[in-house]
Design goal:
- It comes from Streptomyces kaempferi.
- About 20% of the residues lie in helices and about 45% in strands.
- The model has no long low-confidence stretch (mean pLDDT about 95).
- The termini are close together.
- The protein has one domain: Pnp Oxidase, Chain A (Roll), CATH 2.30.110.
- The chain has three helices and eleven strands.
- Strands 1, 2, 3, 4, 5, 6, 7, 8, 9, 10 and 11 form an eleven-stranded antiparallel sheet that branches.
- It is an alpha+beta fold.
Length: about 170
């Protein structure tokens, strides 16, 4: 889905002297390992909406699920552009990541089965999904749409000396 060799730059304005760019493969490892992400969408009236959610990184994209009637899904029906963030709430260590892109609904049943296995493998049996033939996950709460967000632009904020801000641009 996403170019695996993005253009990578460190922004000296927001980085310690001598800081170097975080390599994209390191950012991908952090994206894949994160337990919680924050999704930012835009309501139809233009107001922002931010919510925490679970997700899995597969094949160059971050995937998340949401019920068809949830605010996230309603927002995405009007505007598919999103920001996903993850990181740690500390100042002097870690790396915060920001992924900007378009949320594209995944409906291929074989792909959804693979993603359902990834969810369960990452989060355990509490997050087991059945896959519906109409292209959605199903759990005890009802159907859930699955979306993939391949980065168009991503940022990494390295915290602690040296502080760094890396930008990755994808074609």
């Amino acid at each position: 889905m996403t170019d695996t060799s993005p253009r990578t730059d460190v922004d000296a304005r927001y980085s310690s002297p001598g800081a170097v760019a975080t390599p994209w493969p390191e950012a991908v490892q952090r994206l894949a390992a994160a337990e919680l992400y924050w999704l930012s969408t835009v309501r139809p009236d233009g107001r922002p909406h931010v919510t925490p959610l679970l997700g899995v990184w597969r094949d160059g994209a971050l995937h998340f699920a949401t019920g068809a009637g949830e605010r996230k899904a309603l927002n995405l029906a009007e505007n598919p552009y999103v920001v996903l963030t993850t990181g740690v709430n500390t100042w002097s260590e870690g790396c915060d990541l920001v992924v900007e892109g378009e949320a594209v609904r995944v409906t291929d049943v074989a792909r959804l089965r693979e993603l359902a296995g990834a969810w369960e493998g990452k989060y355990g049996a509490a997050w087991r999904f059945e896959v519906r033939e109409d292209g959605a996950f199903q759990d005890k709460y009802g159907p859930a749409f699955v979306f993939a967000v391949a980065p168009r632009t991503a940022f990494g904020f390295g915290k602690g000396e040296p502080f760094s801000q890396t930008r990755w641009r994808f074609t």
